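Typical record is below.
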Amino acid sequence: MVDALFGVLSFLVPLGMVLIVPVVLLGGLWWHFRGIKKTKEWAAQVGWTYVGSDPSLVSRWRGQPFGIGSGRQATRVVTGTYQGRQAVSFAYRYTTGSGKNRSTTTYHVSALHLPAYLPNLELTPEGLGARLAKVFGAQDIQFESEDFNRAWRVAAPDPRFAHDVLNPRLMERLLRPDAQGLALRIEGQDVLCWSLGSPNLHGLARRLDVMSAIVEAVPRFVWQDHGYDPLNR
């Protein structure tokens, strides 16, 4: 009886694997094309343009979450304007490890284009990762607001630039619920925002509002120092 049972199992287990693998693959394809369909529908509704994939976005920025892993891709790319500024939203995906330890990570990345290049300024939510980073010497610029210091870790090569941009009004704005959990960075000629997971386009306006607040907080003299005058645009 036992031998017969093992014989049946030895037949059913491989058969089950043969049946499960195609189902999993088909399910993944269905989910992929469903995401593309919903992205196209969203773009048509708001007047944006569906681009699909854009390899240039993979190497456009240097800071996190870019530059990690292999097989990097920028897909479900949509572009448009928000409050008069060029914007882009996409799924950024990369792979780490190999074999059984192979895993794929996906981020929702969005960017607002700036009229001039600015120094780097990164704001990431305080949490266990940020606390561990500071233990190992990561930068965390402090401000007058203790509530802000508890909520955000701020890093910038030029601390003066960070203080110029992060005025009391912007710090208050970044403490509102719609900014919680976002990671933000001024890099080159863009303001970036990224969060773990597939794109949530219905929440895109929320993050673009937060990013726009950062752009609006840049003082005129800072823009002028970098070759742009907002009053002469």
Summary: The radius of gyration is 22 Å.
